[in-house]
Amino acid sequence: MRPVEEKWEEIKNSVIADYDISSIAVKTWIDPMEYYSETEDTVTIMLPNNKAKILDLITNKYRDIFIIAISEALNNDYEVNFIVDDVKPQENAVVQNTNSENESTNSSLIKKYTFDNFVTGNNSFAVSACLAVAETAGTDNNAYNPLYIYGGSGLGKTHLMHAIGNYLNEHNPSLKILYVTSENFTNEIVNSLRSDKKYNTDSMSVLKDKYRNVDVLLIDDIQFVIGKEATQVEFFNTFNSLYENGKSIIISSDKHPKYMETLDERYLSRFQMGLQVDVQPPNYETRKAILDQLNQKHGNKIDDDILIYITDNISSNIRELEGAYNKLIALSRISSDKITLEMAKNSLKDIINPNKTKVINFEIIMEEVSKHYNISVNDILSNKRNKEIATARQIIIYLCDKLTDDSKVNIANKMKRDHSTVNHSINKIKESIENDPIFEKNIESLIKTITSL
Ligand code: ADP
Ligand code: MG
User: Fold this and answer.
1) pTM of whole model > 0.85?
2) Ligand 1 atom, smallest distance to 152 CA
3) Which of 70, 319, 325 is the best mutation target for the ligand 1 pocket, counting ligand atoms within 8 Å of the beta carbon and taking the most?
4) Which atom in ligand 1 lies closest to the alpha carbon of residue 159?
5) SS3 sequence of the chain
């Protein structure tokens, strides 16, 4: 089974659960949907023939939702098509026709990841290096071999690798280009070894041929190969064979070779022969530019203040940035009103800072207590001795001691009191809490308000 096919039921269920789709809509639209086919980058979903008339409507309403649900289930982005029973989708026919060896090798590339739609931003070094490699890989003067791209998750490594592959495919179509994730590479090796042992076949040498006959090998997320003995040995044999024959190798990893703990010295030096480039987390302008580009693709459906909100709040991972945007697009499909900033904040609350530890400080406590007892900040900080004001003061001191990192000396300074007043206030409030259940409730509710702001 292919990846989406395997998780089809799960994907359908998450569509139903996550988007608040009414039970009648589930029965009418979602239940009858069937998995039809998938390629590297497109999933086709089939509707029963009686839905032919409303194909456009369904596509409009559910396409983005499925894109997101699939992306969440598989950590991989696919386009989604809907077809009606018996109508064959175009891209399927194309895939079935890729008989020539070259095309089937090069079809491991995801077409939508190109240099054109990669926002360079603060990654001009990485992009230049990748372009230089794209212009020369597979030729006699291939620059930077191997090219080693490293950096954190969701920063664009996979995108850049496919961009190199697609560029080569376009400008130098006779080259055999093979892109593989190290997960697939590992699976292929493990399966071949198993099959050869069990059935006495020769699939391992077929596999070796496949990898050693390419002009350009792109291997993604190499960290998953390193440390797995059989796969690692096979990888380095392949690496050496390609390298010695002047073929190009492009590797990605989550860390610099130096920091790959299980990498042998002799392999380390091989990775370092070419060029290592790191992909940097995007700065503010880059993040905004990526969102602008996405928004343009979707007809500028989302307002700029919302894009700025996402830019401000998701800073370390472009996959999450896109995820947030896609969620809003899906929301806009199912809601009849234009998305407002409030709606966006609400819909993104699980993505944006889910465990942000709130910093509670003197100012926040002062403001809340002042509001709660309707006493001005000036009065609280004054020398007035009125009982209500004095109690508010003591509560602020008690809460600062309990909820912030401020030392008692600090609290005293901020409250314009001396150290002994701080101690006295804390004890006084503790005592009242112990002796007066209503007061205790009051303080509890204040704390609740302050900590959930
Ligand atoms: P990685 O492989 O480093 O984990 P990916 O290449 O899968 O990250 O990127 C995650 C998503 O973010 C992809 O959809 C990719 O297209 C997008 N992306 C990453 N960097 C950029 C960029 N600079 N410009 C446009 N899209 C980007
Ligand atoms: Mg990747």
Assistant:
1) no
2) 3
3) 319
4) 6
5) CCHHHHCHHHHHHHHHHHCCCCHHHHHHHHCCCEEEEECCCEEEEEECHHHHHHHHHHHHHHHHHHHHHHHHHHCCCCEEEEEECCCCCHHHHHHHCCCCHHHHHHCCCCCCCCCCCCCCCCCHHHHHHHHHHHHHCCCCCCCCCCEEEECCCCCCHHHHHHHHHHHHHHHCCCCCEEEEEHHHHHHHHHHHHHHHHHHCCCHHHHHHHHHHCCCEEEEECHHHCCCCHHHHHHHHHHHHHHHHCCCEEEEEECCCHHHCCCCCHHHHHHHCCCEEEECCCCCHHHHHHHHHHHHHHCCCCCCHHHHHHHHHHCCCCHHHHHHHHHHHHHHHHHCCCCCCHHHHHHHCCCCCCCCCCCCCCHHHHHHHHHHHHCCCHHHHHCCCCCHHHHHHHHHHHHHHHHHCCCCHHHHHHHHCCCHHHHHHHHHHHHHHHHHCHHHHHHHHHHHHHHHCC
For the chain (length 453 residues), average pLDDT per consecutive 10?
92 86 76 89 85 74 88 88 66 37 71 94 91 89 90 96 95 94 92 89 91 96 87 91 94 90 81 92 94 96 96 91 94 87 92 68 92 92 92 96 88 93 95 92 89 72
- In the reported structure, the alpha carbon of residue 362 is separated from the centroid of ligand 1 by a whole-number distance in angstroms of 41
Atom number, ligand 1, closest to the C-alpha of residue 153: 4
* Residues less than 5 Å from ion ligand 2, measured at CB: 157-158
Residue 33 Cβ inside 6 Å of ligand 1? The answer reads no
Q: What are the tens digits of pLDDT across the range 408-432?
A: 999 999 999 999 999 999 999 999 9
